[in-house]
Amino acid sequence: MKGRIACALAACIAAAAAPYAGADFPNHPMKIIVPYPPGGATDIVSRVAGEVLHDRLGQPVIVENRPGADAVIGLDALARSAPDGHTLGIMPGASLVTLPVVKKSLPFDPLADFAPLSMVFRYPQIIMVNSELPVKSLAELIAYVRANPGKVNRAVVGTGSMLQSTMTDVALGIQGQTVIVNYKGSSLSATAMQSNEVQLMNMDPTLGLPALKSGKVRALAVTTPQRLAVLPDVPTVAEAASPAFELTSVFGFFAPAKTPRETVQKLSEEFAAMAKSGPVNDYIVNKIGAMPVGSSAEEFGQWLRTDFAREKAAAQVAKVQPE
Q1: Is residue 98 part of a domain?
Q2: Model pLDDT, residue 226
Q3: Is the dihedral of CA 38, 100, 89, 207 positive or negative?
């Protein structure tokens, strides 16, 4: 009996202490897991953020690339890490919530096994057409596709891209009226757009802006709530066709679930501040053409739950089955 009481008392003390367990955080070197190969935007943002964390928190920060299996390998490593705030990860939010939609089994629960810290930046998408297509506005594109069902090829890159394209086409009222062409990489799809192999695509600025300079593609609309500073004359989808429509690729930092609340709060504030000023903000704005965010942990969590519902609905429309 005494043993059971002692165990129960210890459990109560541990539970009460859990929210404050990170009071001395950080107390040893930290790690950021990037579930992609070196050199991409997530990798470089993590390295710049790691340098800032080192300066502000006084502990070294190592960036560890764990690519493979559509980011599952790196995310699984993060989910299994000690929930003390010393191991973090970066991931596109949409890719995270897409995983249970496209995969039958995962070694983790994307919504339950991670503690969202902050949305750091987001990529807009630009709805682009090949310049030979006789349309110069979103309204003209909608009318053309409806009048010529099956004659416009739409490029996608993988299942996630197809779900985002489905959401766009549903909002425009043209879902099912284009021919979906799936490419193995973004560079291949961009080349296909410029050669008129496909005529329609959602492109991010890293591909879209150079393609525009070629004169072989035309920008019709952006999927953000506001117009882009680099494309001030290009309207939003909400302005041109579908009020309240928004589709962006959000990138943010995560910790393992059960990380102490005050540690989550501290890291969330650090990453949010980085997104709004300093070298991380500079890289986001000037190097990759993305939009800084800097959200709270709660805002990021709500975005993930909302986007998961959108992805599930798009999968049903596109008849995507998990594999």
Answers
A1: yes
A2: 85
A3: positive
